[in-house]
Amino acid sequence: MAHTHAQLENYASQIEQLAGKLGLDYYPVDFEVVPNNFMTEISVYGLPVRMQHWSFGIRYIHQLIRQGMGHSRIFEVMFPGDPCHAYLVNDNSIAENTLVVAHVIGHADFAKNNHLFARFMNMAGGHILEKAAERAHAIEQALAHYGQERVEAVLDTALALEPHIDINQAIHRPAYPVTELPNPTTKSVSLFAERFHRLPGEADNDRRSEALQNKSSIPPSREYDLLWFIAQYAPDLEGWERDIFLAVREESFYFYPVFVCQIMNEGWASYWHARLLREADFLPSDLYLSAIKAHSDVVRPYAADNQLSLSINPYHLGFSIWEDLIERRGIELARQICREEDDFGFIRNYLTTELAEKLELFIYEADHEGGIRVAEQDIHALHEAILAPKFNYGAPRIAVTHLHRDGSLKLVHDYQDDGRGLDIGRAERVVDYISRIWRRPVSLQTVGASGNPYVIAGKQAKS
């Protein structure tokens, strides 16, 4: 195995040199070869070290079942940053891991140069792995101090609301401005008292107290960043509870570019790993052929042999669009698109009718006999079918609309904007989670199956 690792390091070094010659520009990448079970844990938790929660255990079991059935194989996991961190499986062949190295370099180039990735990394910082480990340690301390039941209740709520951020806002955003009306009866306070109340903890308490007294302006407009709002304005949350909400929120910001650029990013990495391997004349011919076979497995449009997949393979679709673009319009335009677009612009602007027909991309539906048939061939309908799951992080669009004087909270589902209904049962559970943390009445206004107004009222925890 040591000899194999030495081979891989040698090939990786030469591939990186070749990538530089071809114009790829990326932050350094720290590669690490790990066991398959550790790789599965990383892919499930989303980070090598992350806060503990029962939901990750369920995802882990689900992933093991998929792998056991042959429906999922993890070749690599890569985390953008400065430096980037990439994990390779030690059970992979030398050819597969050589391909993975080239693939990761493509990811690293995309992450450094794409404007969305750059914006979010500037906000969240380039050391997400270290920060996540610090947060995990803080939550372990909270578990020891406050007990599993209290900590888990906070995590249940925060992770249930993980997609509900406002990506148009900054990670570190101030509270709403409060307009203070002059009060001639207000007594003057000493300089010491004024400075005391400006201390961070006291200022936060004063702000929340004032918000409870002046709720007509909270929020001043619809607030879609639910994690931030609860952390800022939940009347009775303690500091460690607020920290958990803000930690989940910051990690959600970090993951957003990966989510919303998945097709572009995987396609870009696949294009470059294919090109790097093709131009790597230092690779033995048998290794090159094995690596290209692995490439074909990654970018194939089929779920299994001779079975057409009804879900989009982002590797296949992204690779095909980039290959078509570069062949027709050149690498410089492709680099510009890589910098400026996300999946929404990429699919709408560059998945053409001709390419969709060539790739046999259609919208399918089940017929009355249980078979599958093509339901739609319109290119715009195809674009929206591919992109619909990406809108608003794949979650229903929920906003805080009013914080009442009695402390009760009103939420509204923007069903007309997001075009999707709610799973009422799941929504009831999430509203209950919020009520337990808010510790005041919480309601969510949406529509029922018939389209009539429907209100979900949360159940508060018993004292």
Descriptive keywords:
11 strands; alpha+beta; globular
Describe this structure in words.
The protein is α+β, with helices and mostly antiparallel strands. It has a domain at 128-170 and 199-259 and 396-457. Helix content is 56%, strand content 11%. The protein is built from 20 helices and eleven strands. Strands 8-9-10-11 form a four-stranded mixed β-sheet, with helices on one face. Strands 1-3-2 form a three-stranded mixed β-sheet. Helix 4 (94-113) packs across helix 12, helix 5 packs antiparallel against helix 11 (239-260) and helix 16 packs antiparallel against helix 18. Mean pLDDT is 82; it is low at 180-203 and 303-310.
Helices and strands in order:
Elements: H1 2-21, E1 29-34, H2 36-45, H3 54-68, E2 76-79, E3 84-89, H4 94-113, H5 115-124, H6 128-146, H7 148-160, H8 191-197, H9 200-213, H10 226-233, H11 239-260, H12 262-279, H13 285-299, E4 302-304, E5 307-308, H14 314-329, H15 331-340, H16 343-350, H17 353-358, E6 363-366, E7 372-376, H18 379-387, E8 398-403, E9 409-413, H19 415-418, H20 424-438, E10 442-447, E11 453-457
Parallel strand pairs: 1-3, 9-10
Antiparallel strand pairs: 2-3, 4-5, 6-7, 8-9, 10-11
Low-confidence stretches: 180-203, 303-310
* Mean pLDDT rating: 82
Please outline the major beta sheet: 4 strands, mixed
How much of the sequence is in beta strands?
5-15%
Total helical segments: 20
Specify the helix fraction band.
Answer: 55-70%
How many runs of DSSP E, i.e. beta strands? 11
Oligomer: single chain
